[in-house]
Design a protein that fits this description.
Beta Polymerase, domain 2; Hydrophobic Seed Protein; four-stranded mixed beta sheet; globular; about 900 residues; Four Helix Bundle (Hemerythrin (Met), subunit A); 5 domains
């Protein structure tokens, strides 16, 4: 017995209600039926039935339920001697296609004759029918979208709304009058479809572009939208809708019969659509509601449910998401090609240059034969001379398209795919092919489209297997939003944007890019920078450097270029880490970095690489502050690498000018010795990062603090606190002036936490006379907004009590309820805590780098641990991104030693881990 027969048999036994009862009185009966049948559908899914079969099964269950309810209502109307109206109950949307995932909404149309509604009010019989059906469905817990319309109403709605028109062309009769349903379909076809094809397709194309952009513009997002994302279910459905409007092709088999797609492409599309339906069904079951985004937290659970068995959650995710990406990528690439073959896409809209106009006019006026290819109307076609005869043309096709701004004809795309077997060892070692490839990489500002086109047809991964292994590779780092291959191509696109850019942040790097002598080296470095991730054998940057040597040998690069290529790849993370997590006013750090990078050209390439890599990871994580840090590191390192000593004199001049400016800004009542004391007792770094206005503010704070010591003895222990709201930067700066004492940083950090404030960053400065000037940049911990007056007052109260020993700070912090964690764990895993020690970067201190999940009181317990260990904290660089704390602390033992021995490091790491785990 088939599933449908089982449902019908069950309905015959269970859904027949007594003559004197209405459906509204038999809700329990309908609920029991749905419970059994929904369980049967779930079992069908769990047993491995196809995604389409499961969705069709749920649609069948609802068909049977609706027909039973309607039959009972009709019988009751007849018993009451009410005329049953002429109507059709019609399924729309996914229900109309007969495809319903487990928790998808049900869309239905009550189609009626025009005379059944007067002045917007349905006649009693029609009203009883519609309400009788809807109330039962709602009481059964189903989500129902419904409309009540005549055939003429349907036409009017179809002509005013593209979505409604789509729903009506795939509408399906569930029960009722078939003649009325046919009348509606015929009217819609005659008055809303014929003659409206172009406008519908244009609207669909525009909607598709908007939808894809909204959901990331890539088929390989870390958390893809299975329904609406690039390569999702909607792309597949959209294609069939447009094909139907274009040529009345209603399915893939018809498209294959007319040779719009190959048999292999049809099978890939059908397999992908079925697989995504299955994934969406499991996503619904796991979430117990209708959702479309596949979150990281559910990916391992869904993978297990769908039969992926690796015991490691990360390996399960890689296998499962690799299949998801493969299928979404197939839908995206094949449907895009089909749109072109069906002539659905409009001409690209852009303002042409004079050169473009001349080229376009020439190309439109005549067909050009070039290197065995035909060029006509801005498109490149496969000529009669095959790739088999001349394999080098495979690479040259992309150079011709790149240099002339041509689009690929779909048949040429297919021909390249069919010729990938020609990319063998001989091809990869061919000098002419190599030269063509390097020329493609040398066209700065225009490389990404060529490389993306290569990747989409599978050519790039064949020619560069090191890159090919990144295809659909899941990246487990929380801050990556793309697969490894997509991230790489996005990075290259970001680098292209730098060329001739007029708007920041890209324009900040345009001059560096324009002066670059060998752009192909930088593009190749970007192309290979994450290649080491595919091998999963250690630090991917080091592994990538080794792989780059293999590529350089195949491409016959000279020794200097090979050295630069490897250096950039092996150090591609260092510049972001140093600029954001190191003290850029420490000359030792700058000199060490410059020595490591070796040349100005390497520095230029690494700076551009760092910017492109950061933007390609997630442009939402980049901001003006990080931009200024990167450029500051670039400027300082460039002066060393070019042998300039101007910056030393410039620093001395800067300090003298700053001193004069501060003196002029202060009230004349300030004694010169107060100003001298401030300038003589603080490190050079202070004056590099403080403006004159900020220095004036802190001299006044120090003056106020000293006044308390000398005049108001009862307030001698009170700190001076000032607040500066910075709404444009999204934080408030709180400055504290007090006497230095053991554990002061921890006490301030803890007091801020106890007052409900989140610390974004902190700066610690201590004058040699013992006066401390600390600055913290904070926000409201719950909302992320600027702190309110109450929070500021609470902090000052708590800090005063903490400094006088009147309050237990740890107990106070423990009472704070943590907000919603930003870091999204996988299968309950937390972000691993990583602690590293750097004794090379800073001359006199050990830098402890800490990465862990952010939580309430983290900075307090860490700084308290330093006190317990006898460590002096000089500088904290604090970064919080997506719920992860990425912090660096400059410390040394109070007697001046670095943390150097293995035993010392083990003790510090153990104490820090204990402190962090105490937070829960």
């Amino acid at each position: 017995m088939t599933f449908a027969e089982k449902v019908e048999s069950h309905a015959a036994r269970r859904l027949e209600i007594p003559p004197n009862r209405t459906p509204a009185q038999e809700i329990a009966r309908y609920k029991d039926f749905l419970k059994v049948e929904q369980h049967r559908v779930h079992l069908l899914h769990k047993r491995g039935s196809s995604g389409l079969e499961v969705c069709q099964a749920r649609a069948k269950v609802l068909d049977v339920l609706l027909r039973s309810i309607v039959t009972a209502i009709e019988r009751n109307l007849a018993a009451e001697k009410s005329a049953v109206p002429k109507y059709s109950l019609v399924a729309l949307g996914g229900y109309g296609r007969g495809e319903l995932n487990p928790f998808s909404d049900i869309d239905i149309l009550f189609l009626h004759e025009t005379d059944q509604v007067t002045a917007g009010r349905a006649k009693p019989a029609l009203k009883a029918l519609a309400e009788g059906v809807l109330y039962v469905l709602w009481d059964c817990g189903l989500k129902v979208g419904h409309v009540v319309r005549s055939a003429e109403d349907c036409v009017a709605e179809a002509n005013s709304n593209m979505q409604s028109k789509t729903a009506l062309i795939e509408a399906r009769l569930v029960t009722g009058d078939a003649t009325l349903f046919k009348k509606m379909r015929d009217l819609v076809l005659a008055k809303a479809v014929r003659g409206h094809e172009k406008e519908y397709i244009q609207a669909r194309i525009e909607d598709q572009a908007t939808r894809r952009a909204k959901h990331g513009g890539s088929a390989t997002m870390q958390e893809p939208n299975i329904k609406n994302g690039c390569g999702g279910l909607r792309d597949y459905q959209n294609l069939l809708w447009m094909a139907w409007f274009k040529d009345r092709n209603s399915n893939l088999q018809e498209l294959e019969n007319q040779q719009f797609i190959s048999s292999a492409e049809r099978r890939q599309l059908e397999s992908a659509y079925d697989y995504l339906l299955k994934v969406r069904s499991e996503l619904h079951y796991q979430s117990k509601r209708a959702v479309d985004v596949l979150p990281k937290s559910l990916q391992p659970h869904i993978a297990t449910a769908l039969g992926y068995r690796d015991p490691s959650p990360s390996r399960r995710i890689e296998a499962f998401m690799g299949d998801v990406y493969k299928h979404m990528r197939n839908i995206y690439l094949i449907t895009r090609t089909l749109e072109q073959r069906l002539a659905l896409l409009p001409e690209p809209k852009r303002i042409p240059s004079i050169k473009d106009l001349w080229k376009r006019r020439r190309e439109k006026s005549e067909e050009i034969i070039l290197d065995g290819f035909k060029i006509l109307d801005g498109q490149i076609y496969n000529g009669p001379r095959s790739f088999k005869e001349q394999p080098r043309r495979l690479m040259r096709a992309f150079l011709h398209a790149q240099s002339r701004g041509l689009r690929f004809d779909p048949d040429l795309v297919q021909s390249i795919r069919n010729s990938l077997h020609l990319v063998n060892r001989e091809f990869m070692e061919d000098t002419h092919v190599r030269e063509t490839f390097l020329e493609i990489l040398n066209q700065r500002g225009n490389v990404a489209p060529a490389l993306r086109a290569m990747h989409e047809v599978g050519f790039l991964g064949k020619y560069l297997p090191e890159f090919g292994k990144l295809t659909c590779l899941v990246q487990h780092e929380f801050y990556h939003q793309y697969t490894a291959d997509e991230h790489t191509l996005v990075c290259i696109g970001k680098l292209d944007q730098v060329w001739e850019s007029q708007t920041p942040p890209y324009s900040n790097y345009a001059k560096i890019f324009q002066q670059l002598e060998r752009p192909y080296t930088l593009y190749l470095a970007l192309l290979l920078h994450d290649a080491g991730k595919a091998l999963d054998t250690g630090k991917h940057a080091d592994v990538g450097g080794q792989l780059a040597l293999n590529v350089a040998k195949r491409l016959d690069l000279d020794g200097s270029t090979t050295h630069s290529l490897r250096l950039i790849i092996e150090n591609h993370l260092s510049m972001a880490q140093i600029s954001q997590r190191r003290d850029l006013e420490d000359a030792t750090i700058i000199k060490t970095f410059a020595t490591q990078i070796q040349s100005k050209e390497n520095l230029d390439m690494l700076t551009l690489h760092t910017f492109a890599d950061s933007m390609g990871t997630s442009d939402q994580l980049w901001n003006g502050f990080k931009d200024s840090l990167l450029l500051s590191l670039y400027d300082k390192a460039a002066k060393i690498l070019t042998g300039s000593t101007e910056f030393i004199a410039a620093q001395q001049t800067h300090l003298a000018v700053l001193r004069d400016e501060v003196t002029n800004m202060l009230p004349p009542t300030f004694a010169p010795d107060e100003i001298e004391a401030h300038f003589d007792t603080l490190p050079a770094r202070y004056f590099q990062i403080r403006s004159a206005r900020e220095i004036v503010s802190e001299i006044i704070m120090a003056h106020r603090f000293m006044h308390l010591q000398l005049v108001e003895e009862d307030k001698a222990l009170e700190p001076v606190v000032t607040w500066h709201n910075e709404p444009d930067r999204g934080y408030t700066a709180v400055q504290i002036c007090t006497w230095d004492r053991a554990g002061l940083f921890a006490k301030i950090a803890g007091s801020l936490t106890a007052a409900g404030l989140n610390i974004l960053s902190g700066q610690v400065f201590t004058r040699t006379d013992g006066i401390v000037l600390d600055t913290f940049y904070v926000t409201d911990a719950k909302t992320g907004a600027l702190p309110k007056k109450e929070e500021k007052e609470l902090f000052e109260k708590i800090l005063g009590q903490v400094l006088t020993g009147e309050i237990d700070l740890r107990a106070l912090i423990a009472k704070i309820k943590p907000g919603k964690a930003l870091y999204k764990s996988v299968e309950g895993d937390t972000l691993p805590t990583v602690i590293t020690f750097d004794n090379h970067t800073a001359e006199k201190r050990t830098i402890i780098d800490l990465e862990t999940e952010d939580r309430v009181g983290l900075l307090y317990v860490v700084s308290q641990a330093f006190i317990d260990l006898g460590l002096d904290l000089a500088l904290a660089k604090i970064v919080t991104e997506k719920g992860a704390a990425i912090d660096s602390f400059y410390v040394r033992y109070v007697k001046g030693w670095k943390i150097e021995t293995a035993a010392q490091k083990a003790e510090v790491e153990a104490r820090l881990r204990q402190a962090i785990s105490s937070l829960g």
